[in-house]
């Protein structure tokens, strides 16, 4: 695909990226204790019925239908506990004391809650009408044997892993972790913990990307900071291309005299696009190296974080085989203040979603929206997403907000 000098929309950029990605096919077998965040490579089929037997949903008494309307006390003929079922003879005209999860005795037609009876040494007196089969969990009611419990492409979390464990399955087949090589570029970069020299700044973008990649379940190869030297950059790109599925650089994708990344990418691979109608984040590059995909993030910290969040994460999810990946949850609310905006680029301002005095959700700005003000992520809890051709927003106007996910404390 030929690169274009035109500004393309975020939606178009994302569509172009995802349309070219083929999920990796390599797999790993991992125990459930190591499965959190991994992507299923195969369907999970249930080897058994869940529950595996009819059991009581309440503490109470097991009854036969013939005794539902008994007026005289029903003697208690035995007890059933979870793991200790009643196995003796069940005489007619009696009941069985039963606890939640215990197998219901053969012939049981309903379980009445203990709160709905009066108990004495003579037995129980029923105080409420009984429905056939009430308070009985039927075998296979939750999951039937051989049913597809989770499909390939499902990301495993604390919502899925206990279900798999309940089926007696101890390990799962998952897609191999996507491997991502990360480096930053620029003579001005200094590492945190070291003193700053004249004109230097601390290298925060690589740290930000590294942390977000690890928290999203990807394997990171951190190649450090690279000076603005064409030979060094070329060597780093070649090394990264050999060891990773995706290469992410930070800085060097704008049009400055010392921004060599684009030039080197033209030599080593192909850049599909590198200018977005997006703010922050105009200079974002996407392309292909010999063995890997390439994403070039802007040098400004907020721009790097926003483009990674909005573009790189969905691309990595597709590469890992994850299905059902949706964009961030958006709401339509009113803004409490004036928001500055020039037409031409879709804007992702950082905002604070909160309830006003009337209990209605509204959004306010975190303040300075400069692409260097990373503290806006700490102050906010959402993006205020303003349309490409929209101009200034006045107080009381409707806007879309996109809630931060866990990476920004959402």
UniProtKB/TrEMBL annotation:
PROSITE patterns: MOCF_BIOSYNTHESIS_2 (PS01079). The keyword Transferase applies. GO terms for molecular function: metal ion binding; molybdopterin molybdotransferase activity. GO terms for biological process: Mo-molybdopterin cofactor biosynthetic process. It catalyses: adenylyl-molybdopterin + molybdate = Mo-molybdopterin + AMP + H(+). Coiled coil: none annotated. Belongs to the MoeA family. NCBIfam families: Glp_gephyrin, molyb_syn, PRK10680.1. Its cofactor is Mg(2+). This is Molybdopterin molybdenumtransferase. It comes from Mangrovibacter plantisponsor. Keywords: Magnesium, Metal-binding, Molybdenum, Molybdenum cofactor biosynthesis, Transferase. It is an enzyme of class 2 (transferase). It comes from the Bacteria. Catalyzes the insertion of molybdate into adenylated molybdopterin with the concomitant release of AMP.
């Amino acid at each position: 695909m030929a690169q274009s000098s035109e500004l393309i929309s975020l939606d178009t950029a994302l569509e172009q990226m995802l349309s070219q990605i083929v999920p990796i096919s390599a797999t790993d077998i991992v125990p459930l204790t190591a499965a959190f965040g991994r992507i299923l490579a195969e369907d999970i089929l249930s080897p058994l019925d869940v529950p595996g037997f009819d059991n009581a949903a309440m503490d109470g008494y097991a009854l036969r239908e013939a005794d539902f309307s008994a007026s005289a006390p029903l003697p208690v003929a035995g007890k059933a506990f979870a793991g200790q079922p009643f196995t003796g003879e069940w005489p007619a005209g009696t009941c069985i004391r039963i606890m939640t999860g215990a197998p219901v005795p053969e012939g049981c037609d309903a379980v009445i809650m203990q709160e709905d009876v009066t108990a004495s040494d003579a037995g129980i007196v029923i105080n409420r009408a009984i429905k056939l089969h009430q308070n009985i969990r039927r075998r296979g009611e939750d999951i039937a044997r051989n049913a597809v419990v989770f499909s390939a492409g499902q990301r495993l979390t604390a919502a899925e892993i206990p279900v798999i464990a309940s089926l007696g399955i101890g390990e799962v087949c998952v897609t191999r972790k996507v491997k991502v090589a990360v480096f930053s570029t620029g003579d001005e970069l200094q590492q945190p913990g070291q003193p700053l020299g004249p004109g230097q700044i601390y290298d925060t973008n690589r740290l930000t990307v590294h942390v977000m990649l690890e928290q999203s379940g990807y394997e990171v190869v951190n190649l450090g900071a690279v000076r603005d030297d064409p030979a060094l950059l070329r060597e780093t790109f070649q090394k990264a291309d050999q060891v990773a599925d995706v290469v992410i650089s930070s800085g060097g994708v704008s049009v400055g005299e010392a921004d060599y990344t684009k030039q080197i990418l033209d030599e080593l691979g192909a850049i599909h696009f590198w200018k977005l109608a997006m703010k922050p984040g105009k200079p974002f590059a996407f392309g292909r190296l010999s063995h890997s995909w390439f994403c070039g993030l802007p040098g400004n910290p907020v721009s790097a974080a926003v483009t990674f969040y909005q573009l790189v994460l969905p691309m990595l999810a597709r590469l890992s085989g994850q299905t059902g990946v949706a964009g961030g949850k958006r709401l339509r609310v009113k803004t409490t203040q004036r928001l500055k905006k020039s037409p031409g680029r879709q804007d992702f301002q950082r905002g604070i979603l909160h309830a006003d005095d009337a209990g209605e959700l509204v959004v306010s700005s975190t303040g300075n929206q400069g692409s260097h003000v990373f503290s806006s992520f700490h102050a906010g809890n959402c993006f205020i997403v303003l349309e490409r051709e929209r101009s200034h927003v006045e107080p009381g106007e409707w806007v879309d907000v996109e809630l931060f996910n866990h990476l920004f404390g959402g």
